[in-house]
From TrEMBL:
Protein name: Uncharacterized protein
Lineage start: Bacteria, Bacillati, Actinomycetota, Actinomycetes, Micrococcales
Length: 333
């Protein structure tokens, strides 16, 4: 399994090479694949991912992510509909000989008879790329051993969370999680990706590129860019548990870098982010609720004698990643 790719086919090749060393033949991809840009007909696919897969005799099955302009749900096959996105029940929609789309609500079994279910989509400015109640209805309430999603459910949901207009997709994923009650849920934020978390292992930095799921025991193994098995880093979901390090907080509309060693904060607003009246950088004074599934409240020190301090309330935090020494925001996917 690999995480977000967003059209980075070179990293996809690295991940495929690592997986091939462990005789993996089917690759599940979670998050944005970037296979079909907005202005490209989805039937005219780029050649690079096909070559990357063919080199190692892999097939790739992907969920649509928040940046993928492709939304196919399971619908009964209708010969008279004329729609290219109708398909038979329990059928992967192959868009090429090696790339298959797993529609929202798709269910199947591994060869070990372990059941799995799929719920793609994510938070997006495009309404049709979000998860909504129709997707949860398509998924149904039947049990599955594994649930594949692009968003994790809420860590500690409140009634406000489940009705949060700022995170409608995550609220629906949480409802799906409660309906399916899987033994294992795998989402993009589960600490692996085509180019994702870097962390210190002894004297060198190791970069996780993929995870291997044992479909019989449901155990996970992680591999680095050399195809070597490595221990997964601890998944940090609440910054209050940390006292050192530089951290990247991804929210729905922006990114925030919190440096606990230097005591600084920086906000990198996204294209749809609200404008702050206060500065986007400063010396950290306090922070509260810096946890996945919450909106952080951050205060910074003021250099203006007439202002006691500046404050900022973030949108919903989707992930927290450690930044290695010298690593920038763009280095962490």
């Amino acid at each position: 399994m690999i995480g977000t790719v967003n059209g980075d086919w070179a990293s996809l090749t690295v991940a495929n090479a690592g997986l091939a060393r462990h005789e993996v033949r089917t690759v599940f991809q979670l998050g944005g694949l970037g296979l079909i840009p907005d202005d490209v007909d989805w039937r005219n696919l780029p050649a690079e991912p096909g070559r990357a897969l063919a080199a190692y005799e892999h097939k790739l099955l992907f969920l649509d992510g928040p940046s993928d302009p492709l939304r196919l749900r399971y619908v009964p096959f209708d010969h008279d509909s004329g729609l290219p996105w109708s398909w038979h029940r329990e059928e992967v929609r192959f868009v090429s000989s090696r790339i298959g789309y797993l529609p929202r609500g798709f269910r199947d079994e591994f060869e070990t008879a372990q059941k799995f279910a799929v719920l793609g989509g994510g938070e997006s400015d495009h309404e049709d790329r979000r998860v909504d109640d129709r997707d949860v209805e398509a998924l149904g309430r039947g049990y599955a051993d594994v649930l594949f999603t692009c968003l994790p459910p809420f860590e500690r949901p409140s009634a406000t969370d489940l009705n949060d207009k700022d995170a409608p997709s995550q609220a629906e994923v949480h409802r799906a999680f409660l309906a399916v009650r899987p033994r294992l849920l795998l989402a993009t934020g589960s600490a692996f990706g085509a180019k994702t978390l870097a962390y210190a292992t002894g004297l060198r930095t190791c970069r996780l590129v993929a995870a291997i799921l044992n479909t019989e025991t449901l155990d996970l193994e992680f591999i680095d860019d050399r195809g070597t098995r490595v221990e997964a880093p601890d998944d940090v979901t609440d910054l209050a548990t940390q006292t050192t390090g530089r951290w990247l907080l991804r929210t729905q509309s922006s990114q925030h870098v919190v440096d606990l060693d230097r005591g600084t904060w920086e906000r990198i607003p996204g294209s749809g982010a609200h404008r702050y009246d206060a500065p986007n950088t400063g010396l950290l004074r306090t922070f509260e609720d810096c946890a996945v599934g919450k909106s952080a409240f951050i205060t910074t020190r003021s250099t203006d004698l007439l202002v006691d301090y500046y404050w900022a309330r973030t949108s919903l935090i989707l992930s927290i990643d450690r930044l290695a020494h010298g690593e920038g925001v763009d280095d962490v996917r």
